Amino acid sequence: SYYTALWGSFPSIPPNGALTASGTWLIPDNWRYSETLCPEGTFARDSLSERGPSYRDVFQTIEGGVGHWDQTRFPSEQPKLRLIGNVDCYTTDTSNPGWAWSNGEELVPGLVQLSNRMIVPPDGITFEPQAGALVGAAWLALPLSEPYERDGLLVGDKSWTLFLESANFRGPVAYWTPESWSRVTANHPPSQFRGMDHRPIDTEYRIFAAHLDLPSVSTNENERDWFRIPQIEFPVDGQGRTIFHQDVTFYGKGAVYDQVKDALDGGQLPLTVDPSSLMHAPLQTHRWGLQSDGKEIVGLERFVALEDWDTDEKEGWAWGLQWPDRSGVFPSYFKESGDEWQPVDASESPSQLQIPAPFARSARQSGYAPPLDNGPLPQVSTANLNDGSVVRYTWYRFVDQPAIAALGLNESQKKRLQDVAERIHAQWNQQAVFIQPPSAGNLVQVQDEVLVNPPKGAEVGWVPVVISQTVAQ
Predict the structure, then answer these.
(1) pLDDT per residue rounded down to tens, the chain (473 residues)
(2) Could you tell me if residue 294 is inside a domain?
(3) Is 0.85 surpassed by the pTM of this model?
(4) Would residue 111 count as lying in a domain?
(5) What is the three-class DSSP state of 83?
(6) CA 105, 108, 114 angle in degrees (round to 5)?
(7) Which end of the chain is more exposed for a tag (fewer CB within 10 A), N or C?
């Protein structure tokens, strides 16, 4: 689990092509496994040969987090939380429950809606504006289904489940089905039992990243190249820091998984983690890794530095940016210096680059409207979000939602899953705590319109499924 801060990086709607993301990069633990995990015909195997021979870091991933996403269809000043995953060597990118990342018209089995108190819009979960406020997140493996054999392949029992902690919502949101991870291994023996349905997370790999992609304008003056990017602003605390992630904790098998497994055999679900199975994970920064046109950007330390910070209780408590002048304004102007770029003040740059508003804003797109029906309940509800969109959602019995129906489970499997969902809805509420409070900072508030109440007669065992997200009229 971890906490990450939210803020709007731009004075208004982000410029077209901008991506600012602060999220996870979780992969299954295949450390020192040398056999080829990605089958021929997958994108990674055919196009990312430099990741071979094992392809372990592009085999399967849980990504996403808080950010301004370049593929968003409803750009907004406030960042959103996206759930993104790669289940098959980057051949199919899956996003929020039932939705593909790259093709909004395609229904992709992967993420399943678990919460009956929060909708998950395909364009991202929205929050109330509050620069620097924190949202807590945890990806925990739960034994929601039992291992079983399917077409000669053993599907594992790890359902990686997202838990959130905010000022007005706490609990599980959605989970990755074990079947989504096992699919790519079906006809490729070297990858069998190596996917996320069987393996723990690789804690030695880089688990977090802050990613920045921006448009630029350029010019040449006196035989030297110059370029400019949009102005990016960061919230700065009293110590001159911008914190990306903090309070990172690893969960052992006994923290939640074993407790849930025992409870599903009879008994009450746990209402908190076993603290003896928790371990603080110290954070350590590496390097910028920023480039433009193949040339590295150097000399940023004059303006801002990458840092990680300790407390008396925790080594590597948090990481982020340290601002010498506490301005929180990232350099926008850069000059060529040999084979590198160096940041400069605006006053040092050519006048051609100092024209006002040279970057077009991101435009709203057509939205998401796949061929889903209106659900078994006649009630179709709407929610108007602060990104200018309207979400339509309807209520499904948990195992009848499209993301589970597409799995082709038998009646016994569906009965078990339905029973599990009903117990979670009945026993886990705002009092069940699976993410420890932040050691510093305030929690962000999820936009009220994202939080829902089940209709009468569907209080337990039913979930809200988004069936469209379009421009609000």
Answers:
(1) 999 999 888 888 888 877 777 788 899 999 889 999 999 999 999 999 999 999 999 999 998 889 888 778 898 888 999 998 899 999 987 776 766 545 544 556 689 999 999 999 989 999 998 888 999 999 999 999 999 998 889 999 999 999 999 999 999 999 999 999 999 999 899 999 999 999 999 987 666 666 778 888 899 988 899 999 988 899 999 999 999 899 999 999 999 999 999 999 887 899 999 999 999 988 888 777 788 888 999 988 889 999 999 988 888 899 999 999 999 999 999 999 999 999 999 999 998 898 887 777 777 777 777 655 556 655 789 999 999 999 999 999 999 998 898 889 999 999 999 999 999 999 997 789 999 999 999 999 999 999 999 999 999 999 999 988 998 87
(2) no
(3) yes
(4) yes
(5) strand
(6) 110
(7) C
Q: Which residues pair with 390 in a beta bridge?
A: 384, 470
In a domain, 278, yes or no: yes
- Preceding amide of 235 cis, omega within 30: no
CA distance 264 to 258: 10
Total structural domains within the chain: 1
Q: Is 106 left (phi over 0), alpha (psi -120 to 50) or beta?
A: beta
Does residue 454 form part of some domain? yes
Which residue range(s) make up the domain with 364?
2-215+249-282+359-471
Q: Contact, 381 vs 392, CB < 8 A?
A: yes
